[in-house]
Amino acid sequence: MYLGLHIGHDAGVAITDNSGVVLYAIAEERITRTKIHRGIPVESLKLIGNFFDFDKIKTVIIGTSETFAIEPLRRALADLDLSNHRKRGLKLPVPPGSRISKDPETVRENFFYEINKIIGSNKKFILSKHHNSHLGCAIGVANFGQSALLVSLDAEGDGESGAVSSLKNNLNGHLQYQELARFPRLDSLGYLYSAVTKAYNFKPDHHEGKITGLAAYGSYSAAVDILLRYVSVKDGIPTIKQVGGFKDQLLRKSLKLFGFEKYTKKYLEEIVQIAEASTINYPDLAFAVQEVLEKSVIEIVSFWQDKMNCETLALAGGVFANVKLNQKLSELELFTDLRIFPNMGDGGVPLGGVWFELYKKGELSKGPLFENMFLAPDISQSEGKFLDSLKYNHNLIIEKIKERELPPLIASLLFKGEIGALHKGKMEFGPRALCNRSILADPRDNYINKLINDRLHRTEFMPFAPVVKLENFAKYFEISSHQSIFPFKYMTMTCKVNREYVQNFPGVVHVDQTARPQVIEKISDELTWEILNEFEKLSGFGILVNTSFNVHEEPINFKLKDSIEALERNAVDFIIYEAYLIRVKK
Questions:
Q1: Would the pTM of this model clear 0.90, i.e. be above it?
Q2: Residue 97 belongs to what domain range?
């Protein structure tokens, strides 16, 4: 058995069997309620320890290499009680938050010691390169038996901003891994996008989705041409020139040589400021960076596909959280299939690190590594006890509904304009709520976006995502004939809405007439499928709003307690938990 860890932002834990098949995976933020949690995922380890015997774990794989791990480890260790640490460069006792040794060996040993306190001793630790972990996620969704181009892009990790590899059939008919290119941090397309996020006074590495949504309201301006002066792709590798002349270029190379790459963001912000000065309309800068990102990534992918001629394009890394970019790549029709790992950002690193190491050893399963993304431990037993305690909460009405009556009841409430939430089963692993922790509403309402956003205290440029039965998908949406349904199971790609329905669903259709649908199959989620079926009987349309069940700047709800608190804060009108309808008394 293998334990995968990530200790940077979006910290998390994954457990797989010896062939990489996922047993558990969870993000630390869902437990601590600190969005994009940074640090050692102690609470996730403790929770999984209630369901899994850590004695079965022989190897721990951390999705970050030695060169980058030291500072995050030092920060993470500073948050823990270090009083029991061994005397490796530390004076004991050491109060929490105190200065931690800068010696890499000391830092690593203390980190291993902290993990061993939770999972037991005698474990082998492997530190995997960050972008190898993302490539491992791409391997995890590639079609086994088919050749695949693997692309990782994010802001940075281990001094790199991306990597390209391939899986190609060798003379023996086996898929052979080949590394093709690595992209340095100084040429980070992810950081360029974040620089624009900051220019709009949004939070970098956090609110990039707002820029994607805003871009659809902009148009081509001089900002595009200015960004393209600095951003180029040559031989499948992106390059970002710095502002200024020869001396600035020399300084750039010197900074890279001596490891002072932390100034990357400053240089990129200077480029963005020049581009911003040339715009008049507010959304045009967002349009410009989206246009340059799409152009650059298309050039990268096209170059390597021309060389490798792969069947599948498999993507991972935070840049591919950009659903519009993914749509553009799909529309190239250079591949028979395009797949994005559902937890594409650093949250997926715990699994990707394990998968990459297993693939290198030839031990990764050739079958599916996961059936769905409902990978959190099943906490229904403790949830049931919490539900029992709610009978003493005189502010709530809790009504048990017969199973066959539940879908028509929910559909009728949504049809009448109420906003409801599903809290059921195991929680999703990844940034998308997939109807186990989702808010549902009527997409035909012109004001549904404002109404829900006001109640959740959100400010969004993107519309909500629709959820639809597989049987109705082609009726409402357009996708290329070669594209599989896979990205649409996990809401990782936008697509065009069929023209005749654009006006019918204002709550889920963007200004550019696209949407980011989730496709539901009855075999995988019978309750949601039946709700859609009943809503179609009432409205004539088998489609609903699906947005994550969380208040603004909070992680997606994990426990029923989180969802009840949101209900009491008027985020929704009712919650469905298992067969119970829960409301607040008027």
A1: yes
A2: 2-62+66-127
